[in-house]
Amino acid sequence: MKKPLIGLLASILVAGATALTGVAPAQATPTHVTSRATGAHAATAARALDAVDFSGTVALSNCSGSLVRMPGSVGSDPGLVLTNGHCLETGLPGPGQVIVDQPSSRTFTLLDGSANEVGTLNATKVVYSAMTGTDVTIYQLDSSYDAIQAQTGISPLTVSADHPVQGADIRVVSGYWKRIYSCSVDGFAYRLKEAGWTWNDSVRYTSGCDVIGGTSGSPVVDAGTGQVVAVNNTINENGESCTINNPCEVDQSGAVTVHQGIGYAQETYIIPACFSAGNTLDLTLSGCTLARP
Question: Which among 179, 158, 166 is positioned nearest to 268, based on CA atoms?
Fold first, then answer.
C-alpha cells in the first residue's frame, strides 16, 4: 500500500487507515456476450486489435479506475466502474468487512484514448467493496453503456473471465496520472499480506510497472486481448516485510518473501462469476468466490 504524498504516512496511521497507491478523500488528497450486445460491445472487442490507450479509464478524486462491462453485459445495462477497495470514499474496508449496495453519489472523469476528458460519470451505489481476499470496489452508474457511448463515444473495457497468464504483456493504465505503465506478469503470489489485509492469488509485476500513489484502481489490461485481467493496488516501497506500503508474499508453506520495488495487482477474473443478467451482483451464484458480508 503506497503513500499518495511524501511524509503523509504518519498522519494516515494516526487516523487508523492506510494509503496503498491511493487514499480515501476523507483521509487525504493525493498527489499521486450476448447477441443483444450493441455497438459498445463491438467497439470493446475491436480494441484488442489496437495499442492499449486511455479509452474507458476514469480518474477519481484520489485514485484511478475504469468503466467496465462483464462478458455477458449488454448495452442497456447500467454502467459499472471498477477501482480498489481502498479507494472507497467512505474509508477503507477493514479486514473481513464486505460492503454491498451502499448508496453513493461519487463522480468519475471519463477519458478517451488520448487521455482527454470527455465526460463525467455519476454513481448511484457501491455494488461491492472489500479488501478481504481481493482489493476491489465496483460502482453502479446512473447511465447505461449505450447512453455513455452516445454521449461520449466511449465504450467500456471488458473484464476477462479467464485467469491471467504468466509472462503476459500487460499495461497498467492510470486515469488519475494519465500515464501508462508497461511490463509483464512475473508470476503470482499465493497470499499477499500488507498490515492487516490479506489478498489471494495476486499478480506480481516485472519491474517496469513501478506504480506510484494515485495509480490505485488502474485497470491492468492484457495487451494481447485488450481485456482487464487485474486491478492495480500496491507496491513494496522500501523492502520491509508485511507492513504498510510494503506487502510481502506468503507461500502455501507459510514462507515469507519480500520483493522491494515490485508492484502487485488483484486478479479480476473472479468478478464476472458473481454477476447475473442486468449487471446484477449475486454472491450466491455457483462459481462466485468473492467474500460475502
Answer: 158
* Helix residue spans in 174-248 (DSSP H): none
Q: What is the pLDDT of residue 204?
A: 98
Domain parsing of the chain, residue ranges: 33-159
CA distance 123 to 216: 19
Q: What is the pLDDT of residue 51?
A: 87
Q: Rounded distance, CA 262 to CA 214, Å?
A: 16
**Phi–psi pair at 12, nearest 5 degrees:** -70, -40
Residue 127 zone, left/alpha/beta (φ > 0; ψ -120 to 50; rest) = alpha
Q: Could you identify the residue written with the cell 468487512?
A: 97
Which is nearest to 78 in space by CA: 29, 145, 25? 145
How far, in Å, CA of 41 to CA of 226, rounded?
12
Rounded distance, CA 42 to CA 145, Å?
Answer: 12
pLDDT digits (tens, 9 = 90+) for 162-221: 999 999 999 999 999 999 999 999 999 999 999 999 999 999 999 999 999 999 999 999
Q: Which of 3.40.50.150, 1.10.357.20, 2.40.10.10, 1.10.760.10 is the CATH number of 33-159?
A: 2.40.10.10
pTM above 0.90, yes or no: no
